[in-house]
């Protein structure tokens, strides 16, 4: 009896409810070994590599890469020993029930089997109780395709399978049903059979009929080559431009100004939801101060001659020094180094400082752990590694879980000052503006110029009082203006 195991959508962290297969590293039928990367799974926050925990063969791939998100516990593939037959795999899939997923799997590792390894059993009926016609066939067909065929009472023998090895897919059965269904759009007349039979979206077929466009031979850009609305509209002749006003002696001809619609991706949805909740539920107040940074800039220039050789490349950035200063100020003011959980405030002895990073997947906040205990060179190395992972979309759950305080720096974009939204459950966030030359009056009455940086502290008033935030900023300003203390 063959050893067969399910591969299910893992659960990384309490908030994870679904994930998407970004890329499969093995194909159906491939053998793999323990420690080999099987796939990349993208969640709302991260993209993790999943490694195999044992040697096996990918016998059945149920969820291709790039499909919509699937819930935690959903069956993604079936692993088995090479001797397992297709009949045994089909029986296993039919009998499979997702396991309880309330306990998070360890990030970066392959998910534990959703059920214990089982031996092949007699094939369980895959037909739903509501199916009017049971289909018995030796042809390879996916479970969902079989359910659809039985529900619709369609003969699958004439259907040409487009899957691996001629396997009939759900889309093959769905497409076979189309000639028998008169597609309509907003009450319009049924489409001609030759258009209805083409693999295209209903709207694309209707637009083709309205504009007398022949879709035969057209290659669609949608999933599996499906013809979409965009493909049809690209063939619709543009309306003749209408002459408008005259500008500088030449007629002004308006051009198309259609919007490019980009729905929120999963990361942007999560960021939007969390920030909306934070702004609506957390009573923010703001404290602003500026700090002189001439000495810090001079010290950084000198120190980086040494640090550049230690950590390689550019040495430490101004932001690295600010992270160190923030961390030291936090441990001196533990009433600011907090998280808010319901009606309780959690205070921490060390500063886990999250840094806001704009990644291709949206705003992410990887964490420099115990930054108060790290040397500037260690902070620079850590932040550079986190930023590289963020830009590559490879931050793990552990990289972003927790954090006692956040730093968001937009100074490199010339922003002088801004207000940041608190990242719950943290109690505060520091917004860092750019460095600007300002004129100041010296004690002797002379006017001189110095470099100053703008800082805005956003504070959760439920947990942190104004005086506590002010004394924290006072300490932070002192560390920035006398940066030798950052090396003590």
Which second-level CATH architecture of the largest domain applies? Answer: 2-Layer Sandwich
Strand order of the largest sheet: 11-20-19-18-14-17
Summed over residues and divided by their number, the pLDDT gives a mean of 81
What is the CA-atom radius of gyration, in angstroms?
Answer: 30 Å
Tell me about this structure:
The protein is an alpha+beta fold. It has 3 domains: 4-95, Beta Barrel (OB fold (Dihydrolipoamide Acetyltransferase, E2P)), CATH 2.40.50.100; 143-233, no CATH class; 266-487, Chloramphenicol Acetyltransferase (2-Layer Sandwich), CATH 3.30.559.10. It has 12 helices and 20 strands. It has helices at residues 86-95, 143-152, 170-177, 193-196, 202-210, 229-233, 266-281, 294-311, 318-332, 376-391, 397-400, 466-481; strands spanning 4-8, 18-24, 31-32, 37-42, 47-51, 56-61, 70-71, 75-80, 246-247, 250-251, 284-292, 338-341, 344-347, 353-355, 357-359, 362-364, 367-368, 405-409, 428-441, 447-460. The chain has a 6-stranded mixed beta sheet with strand order 11-20-19-18-14-17, covered by helices on one side. A 4-stranded antiparallel beta sheet has the order 1-8-6-3, with helices on one face. Strand 12 (338-341) and strand 13 (344-347) form a beta hairpin. Helix 9 (318-332) crosses helix 10 (376-391) and helix 9 (318-332) packs across helix 12. The longest helix has 18 residues, at 294-311. It starts with a strand and ends in a 7-residue tail after the last helix. Residues 102-132 and 180-189 have low confidence and may be disordered.
């Amino acid at each position: 009896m063959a050893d067969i195991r399910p591969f299910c959508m893992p659960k990384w962290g309490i908030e994870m409810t679904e994930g998407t297969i970004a890329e499969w590293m093995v194909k159906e039928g491939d053998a793999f070994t323990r420690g080999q990367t099987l796939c990349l799974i993208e969640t709302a926050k991260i993209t993790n590599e999943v490694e195999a925990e044992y040697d096996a063969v990918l016998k059945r791939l149920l969820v291709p890469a790039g499909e919509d998100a699937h819930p935690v516990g959903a069956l993604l593939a079936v692993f088995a020993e090479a001797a397992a037959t297709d009949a045994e795999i089909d029986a296993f899939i039919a009998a499979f029930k997702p396991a309880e997923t309330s306990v998070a799997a360890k990030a970066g590792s392959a998910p534990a089997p959703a059920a214990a390894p089982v031996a092949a059993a007699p094939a369980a009926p895959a037909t739903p109780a509501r199916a009017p016609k049971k289909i018995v066939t030796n042809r390879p067909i996916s479970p969902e395709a079989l359910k659809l065929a039985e529900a619709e009472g369609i003969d699958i023998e004439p259907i040409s399978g487009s899957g691996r090895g001629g396997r009939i897919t759900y889309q093959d059965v769905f497409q076979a049903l189309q000639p028998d269904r008169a597609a309509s759009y907003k009450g319009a007349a049924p489409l001609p059979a030759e258009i209805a039979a083409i693999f295209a979206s209903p709207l694309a077929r209707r637009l083709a009929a309205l504009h007398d466009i022949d879709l035969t031979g057209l290659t669609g850009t949608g999933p599996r080559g499906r013809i979409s609305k965009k493909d049809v509209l690209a063939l619709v002749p543009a309306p003749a431009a209408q002459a408008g006003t005259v500008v500088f002696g030449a007629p002004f001809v308006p051009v198309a100004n259609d919007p490019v619609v980009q729905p929120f991706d999963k990361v942007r949805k999560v960021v939007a939801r969390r920030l909306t909740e934070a702004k609506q539920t957390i009573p923010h107040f703001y404290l602003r101060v500026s700090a002189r940074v001439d000495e810090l800039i001079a010290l950084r220039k000198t120190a980086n001659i040494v640090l550049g050789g230690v950590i390689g490349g550019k040495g430490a950035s101004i932001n690295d020094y600010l992270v160190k200063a923030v961390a030291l100020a936090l441990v001196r003011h533990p009433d600011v180094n907090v998280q808010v959980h319901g009606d309780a405030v959690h205070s921490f002895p060390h500063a886990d400082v999250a840094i806001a990073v704009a990644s291709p997947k949206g705003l992410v906040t990887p964490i420099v752990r115990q930054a108060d205990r790290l040397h500037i060179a260690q902070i620079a190395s850590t932040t550079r590694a986190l930023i590289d992972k963020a830009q590559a979309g490879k931050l793990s759950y552990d990289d972003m879980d927790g954090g006692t305080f956040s730093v968001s720096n937009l100074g490199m974009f010339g922003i002088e000052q801004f207000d940041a939204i608190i990242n719950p459950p943290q109690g505060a966030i520091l917004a860092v503006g750019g460095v600007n030359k300002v004129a100041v009056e010296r004690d002797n009455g002379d006017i001189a110029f110095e470099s100053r940086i703008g800082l805005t502290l956003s504070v959760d008033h439920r947990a942190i009082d104004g005086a506590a935030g002010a004394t924290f900023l006072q300490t932070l300003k002192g560390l920035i203006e006398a940066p030798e203390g950052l090396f003590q």
